[in-house]
Amino acid sequence: GHEDPVLTRPEEENEDDVAKEEDTGAQVAPIVKLEEVAVTTGEEEEDALLDVKAKLYRFDKDGKQWKERGVGTVKILKHKETAKVRLVMRQSKTLKICANHLILASMSLQEHAGSDKSWVWHATDFSDGELKDELFCIRLGSVENAKKFKDTFEEIAESQAKSSPEGDETAESTAELIKNLK
């Protein structure tokens, strides 16, 4: 019978062919040239008072349950000129904002379900592009970071009470301040 010539070829010859195919010497230029773009986060005018990893939940009133909002870095940022302080949290991979609100004198943290790593608080949040009253729960990776978060948050709420005698700003001025932030 007739045998297929490809199947009866010696092994060495086959390897040589493969080696010849691999090194073509052709220069392949990228089709698209990417420009370097300066990305502004709106955080350039702020100093980070806290920067830790956390998991954030928001309370879904309709479903009466906690929904995960994101895993990432939570920052407490103080504006260099206005001295306003806000909490911003971005998801790790997408950098999508999952919390963005000012820390005001009226805010206080509550312990969540006896956990020494979780805190709950109410805020008027702007992460979805509109002001919304939210109940947040944050879970930090360690007791140490949870304590740091609580201490920083409460210290700021207290200092805001001292620095603004007229109390909390109106929702409108809060929206104005936050909407400029990306």
TrEMBL record:
Domain RanBD1 residue range list: 27-162
GO cellular component, one term: cytoplasm
Sequence ranges of Basic and acidic residues compositional bias: 1-11
Region of interest (Disordered), residue spans: 1-25, 158-182
SMART domains, alphabetized: RanBD
Cited PROSITE patterns: RANBD1
Subcellular localization(s) per the UniProt record: Nucleus, Nuclear pore complex
Organism whose genome encodes this protein: Taxus chinensis
Lineage: Eukaryota, Viridiplantae, Streptophyta, Embryophyta, Tracheophyta
Name by which UniProt lists this protein: RanBD1 domain-containing protein
GO MF, one example: GTPase activator activity
UniProt keyword Kinase, yes or no: no
GO biological process, one term: nucleocytoplasmic transport
Alphabetized Gene3D superfamilies for the sequence: Pleckstrin-homology domain (PH domain)/Phosphotyrosine-binding domain (PTB) (2.30.29.30)
Record key words, sorted: mRNA transport, Nuclear pore complex, Nucleus, Protein transport, Translocation, Transport
